[in-house]
């Protein structure tokens, strides 16, 4: 039932995505209608330019942003795919307008908007048509902000006039700021901010208020009062610097719009003087200051952290991500239920595998963090390659349990006999596998212990991870050492063959989850390529591991399987490499949630708005359970809306140093983490439990 709810939630999310209308020129959402348009009055002629553009019709009260969005927001971006030699220029941005929002001021557009782009057609162009593809991304805001995107396609015929949007292009180009002829400008830094002096302005501007739009973002305080004065035809204005400034340019361009004017004028100026020193946080990234401490409780001591790790490790066995591996242990447990010695040794070996794996994984994490990597618990599942290996392993285990092949037929005879002679190795490796799939889960009591471990000396940190592993292995170890347990289990018999096949299904369910995670990281191509790889591996395992197949047929099937595997890998590996780009996701768009950033949190808190942040990841099963249950509950969402809480989602599916740093600020190094900020910006946030309940969230909201 839980899986069904998850699938329905995913389908519901998919149904809310933009729809692409034939022939691929229009994308419509609940907020905008975006269309790829063209203006080629002479047709596509070699050596003559044409105009392309993105037309955006905003729904009432919604808006998108200029090249400098102001105190918040993101500019619209256009990525063109054109034939060789055809080159698209920059957006000819129309004159924006100021959009005050509480204590902030943004720059953007509403109503009908066209963003035109000049395209140069080379002199040697001789094709019958010009194929055009565009990927556009825009942020549309009202009370909430929703990042949207669209893929567009258009095939312009050559030498045939194409100007159905001529009036729209004429209006858009007419509204683009023009160079301010005859004017001179200079700027200097003062104690009050940036003082700009402009002379030679048009006579009809004299005495009017002038709006100044800096084209460089993040330098000036757009909302602060400006001191302006006229002296003849010279206009002087002093603009305070932004507290969140992250650039110190030596030159700036700006757009000037006189009162009553609709079209701006562009002017540039050099900046004299020394910029104030950037704050360390601002110098690193364009973000707000680090978050305050998340808890007023006294910090954990080492003894308490060890106890919490032990308890959290035991609870980890109840997490759905661990169940498939535990099913293997149940199968082995039943097989040795009446062999007391084998049962005890198997329990000790499994425990050793779990504890040593936790310590080894923790040591790797600590070494990488010491080398400057921003990583946290579950970091290995941020790698598509690791997830693909786990998916392959669980697929093979599932096929083996289902009877598709036997390991003894595939493994070399020496290795197969070694495995038979040393069953304890199987138990130890099962413990290793359990840790591999348990690492994306965070159970209650774990978060605080792991957060403390990241701040302790290596020996104490490894002790905490060892206690976590011992806690996870403890239930099985206790059961294997409990003499009365053997008498409660049925004796080995035919039922075990059916039970073995039954245990294949949790393995395949885990593969479904891992493929979904790959899809979140690499897109549909990566998920499909992984499925093709798993199919090829399954075919090879069947061909080589099924008794009764002749040698000739086995060899032929093996060749086909290996060729299929090579083709699948050649599809999968480039998709994984493309996913390794340094631009991670910061959140998920939707009707309620906005992408997270430190800066966005600071802006909302400065505006006196309560904020709820969901630090999550696609590979975190606990996160997905909370997302589909408590955070989708109608009463919880109604409480959020009634109290004006802004919902932000920080997605850690792919590596993100900003999210890692934010988690460290809470004393955590893994997800999920849920932070609820009140309207009072001086108070630290409430940190909720890893497994959310409706009552806990509603009680926390009541305390705001």
Average per-residue pLDDT, rounded, comes to 76
Low-confidence stretches: 1-23, 279-300, 371-379, 411-420, 580-590
Query: Quick one: overall form?
Result: globular
Rg measurement, Å? 31 Å
Q: What is the strand tally?
A: 25
Number of domains: 4
How many helices? The count is 22
How many angstroms separate the termini? 34 Å
Q: Into which percentage range does the β-strand content fall?
A: 15-25%
Largest sheet: 8 strands, mixed
Tell me the structural class: alpha+beta
Range of helix content = 40-55%
Question: Can you describe this structure?
Answer:
There is one protein chain. With 704 residues, the chain is α+β, with helices and mostly antiparallel strands. It folds into 4 domains: 16-159, Immunoglobulin-like (Sandwich), CATH 2.60.40; 179-275, Immunoglobulin-like (Sandwich); 302-383 and 410-505, no CATH class; 593-702, Glutaredoxin, CATH 3.40.30. 42% of the residues lie in helices and 22% in strands. The protein has 22 helices and 25 strands. Strands 13, 14, 15, 16, 17, 18, 19 and 20 form an 8-stranded mixed beta sheet that branches. The chain has a 6-stranded antiparallel beta sheet with strand order 1-2-3-4-10-7, covered by helices on one side. It has a 5-stranded mixed beta sheet with strand order 21-23-22-24-25, with helices on one face. Strand 1 and strand 2 form a beta hairpin. Helix 11 runs antiparallel to helix 12. The protein is globular and about 100 Å long. Residues 1-23, 279-300, 371-379, 411-420 and 580-590 have low confidence and may be disordered.
């Amino acid at each position: 039932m839980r899986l069904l709810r998850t699938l329905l939630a995913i389908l519901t999310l998919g149904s809310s995505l933009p729809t692409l209308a034939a022939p691929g020129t229009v994308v419509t959402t609940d907020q905008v209608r975006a269309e790829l348009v063209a203006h080629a009055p002479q047709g596509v002629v070699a050596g003559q330019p044409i105009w392309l553009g993105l037309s955006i019709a905003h729904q009432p009260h919604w808006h998108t942003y200029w090249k400098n969005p102001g105190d918040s927001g993101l500019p619209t971006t256009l990525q063109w795919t054109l034939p060789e030699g055809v080159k698209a220029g920059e957006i000819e941005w129309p004159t924006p307008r100021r959009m005050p929002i509480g204590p902030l001021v943004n720059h953007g557009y509403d109503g009908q908007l066209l963003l035109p782009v000049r395209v140069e057609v080379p002199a040697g162009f001789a094709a019958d048509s010009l194929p055009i593809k565009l990927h556009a991304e825009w942020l549309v805001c009202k009370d909430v902000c929703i990042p949207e995107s669209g893929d567009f396609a258009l095939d312009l015929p050559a030498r045939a006039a194409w100007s159905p949007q001529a009036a729209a292009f004429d209006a858009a180009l007419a509204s683009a700021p023009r160079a301010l002829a005859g004017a001179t400008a200079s700027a200097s830094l003062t104690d009050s901010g940036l003082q700009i002096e402009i002379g030679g302005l048009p006579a009809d501007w004299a005495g009017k208020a002038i709006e100044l739009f800096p084209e460089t973002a993040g330098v000036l305080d757009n909302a602060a009062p400006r001191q302006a004065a006229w002296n003849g035809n010279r206009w002087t204005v002093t603009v305070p610097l932004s507290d969140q400034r992250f650039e110190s340019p030596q030159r700036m361009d700006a757009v000037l719009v006189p009162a009553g004017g609709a079209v701006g004028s562009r002017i540039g100026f050099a900046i004299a003087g020394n910029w104030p020193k950037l704050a360390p946080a601002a110098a690193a990234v364009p973000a707000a200051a680090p978050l305050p401490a998340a808890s007023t409780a006294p910090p954990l001591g080492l003894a308490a952290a060890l106890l919490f790790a032990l308890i959290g490790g035991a609870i980890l066995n109840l997490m759905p991500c661990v169940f498939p591996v535990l099913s293997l242990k149940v199968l082995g447990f039943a097989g040795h239920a009446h062999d007391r010695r084998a049962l005890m040794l198997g329990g000790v070996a499994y425990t050793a595998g779990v504890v040593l794996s936790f310590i080894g994984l923790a040591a790797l994490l600590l070494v990488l963090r010491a080398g400057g990597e921003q990583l946290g618990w579950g970091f290995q599942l941020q790698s598509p390659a690791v997830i693909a290996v786990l998916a392959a392993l669980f697929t093979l285990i599932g096929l083996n349990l289902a009877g598709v092949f036997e390991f003894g037929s595939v493994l070399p005879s020496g290795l197969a006999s070694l495995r038979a002679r040393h069953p304890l190795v199987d138990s130890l490796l099962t413990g290793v596998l359990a840790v591999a799939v348990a690492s994306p889960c965070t159970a209650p009591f774990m978060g605080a212990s792991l957060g403390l471990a990241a701040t302790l000396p290596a020996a104490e940190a490894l002790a905490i991870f060892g206690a976590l592993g011992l806690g996870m292995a403890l239930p099985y170890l206790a059961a294997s050492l409990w003499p009365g347990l053997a008498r409660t289990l049925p004796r080995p018999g035919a039922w075990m063959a059916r039970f073995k096949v039954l245990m294949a299904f949790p393995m395949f369910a885990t593969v479904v989850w891992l493929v979904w995670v790959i899809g979140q990281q690499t897109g549909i191509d990566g998920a499909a390529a992984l499925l093709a790889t798993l199919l090829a591996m399954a075919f090879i395992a069947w061909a080589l591991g099924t008794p009764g197949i002749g040698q000739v047929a086995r060899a032929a099937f093996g060749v086909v399987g290996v060729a299929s595997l090579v083709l699948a890998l050649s599809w999968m590996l480039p998709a994984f490499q493309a996913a390794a780009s340094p631009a991670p996701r910061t959140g998920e768009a939707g009707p309620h949630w906005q992408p997270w950033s430190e800066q966005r949190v600071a802006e909302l808190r400065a505006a006196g708005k309560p904020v709820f942040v969901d630090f999550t990841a696609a590979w975190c099963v606990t996160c997905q359970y909370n997302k589909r249950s408590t955070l989708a509950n109608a009463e919880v969402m109604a409480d959020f809306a009634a109290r004006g809480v802004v919902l932000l989602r920080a997605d850690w599916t792919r590596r993100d140093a900003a999210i890692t740093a934010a988690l460290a600020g809470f004393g955590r190094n893994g997800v999920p983490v849920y932070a609820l900020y009140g309207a009072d910006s001086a108070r630290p946030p409430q940190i909720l439990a890893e497994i959310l309940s409706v009552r806990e969230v509603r009680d926390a909201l009541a305390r705001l």
